[in-house]
Specification:
Largest sheet: none
Low-confidence stretches: none
Order of helices and strands: HHH
Helix content: 55-70%
Distance between the termini: 84 Å
Mean pLDDT: 84
Number of helices: 3
Oligomer: single chain
Structural class: mainly alpha
Strand content: under 5%
Number of strands: 0
Radius of gyration: 32 Å
Length: 146
């Protein structure tokens, strides 16, 4: 027997995976911070194969820079923006819509919509969109019940 029990093997495997990930990350950071070396000879004297091989160096540097930017800048910014939008929207929805004031210039219709009763827009929401000339549907329902 090698003297390693199952728990030590699991910890060893996990630390090996973490070490591998850290090594890959260090390589990407080092490559992203690198500068392309000058060409070995003037481009006019290089053949196509040499030019293609030389052009792979800056493209790998650019790839690693964008990879790092994506995962360590854009993903956290996207998550933070989503959390912020969720918090602000929940705060906004915590109170009802403002009272309905029938402004004529906001509800002008040249002709009725071709669906339902002609007053509701295609994506009409009973709670948030007033019906022109009537107000919010839930307010008119409450008044009828009283």
């Amino acid at each position: 027997s090698s003297g390693i029990n199952a728990e030590e093997a699991v910890v060893s495997t996990q630390s090996t995976g973490i070490n591998r990930a850290i090594g890959v990350l260090r390589g990407k950071v080092a490559n992203a911070m690198a500068h392309a070396p000058p060409p070995p000879k003037p481009p006019a004297e290089m053949n196509v194969v040499e030019i293609v091989e030389y052009n792979k160096i800056p493209s790998m540097i650019s790839y690693d820079r964008w990879w790092l930017f994506t995962w360590f800048v854009m993903v956290p910014v996207t998550i933070a923006s989503g959390v912020n939008a969720w918090i602000v929207e929940n705060e906004h929805l915590s109170h009802g819509p403002p009272p309905y004031i029938p402004y004529d210039h906001l509800t002008q219709r040249a002709k009725p919509y071709p669906w339902k009763d002609g007053k509701r827009s295609l994506f009409h929401h009973e709670k948030y969109n007033p019906i022109p000339g009537e107000g919010y549907a839930w307010q008119t329902n409450e008044e009828e019940e009283e």
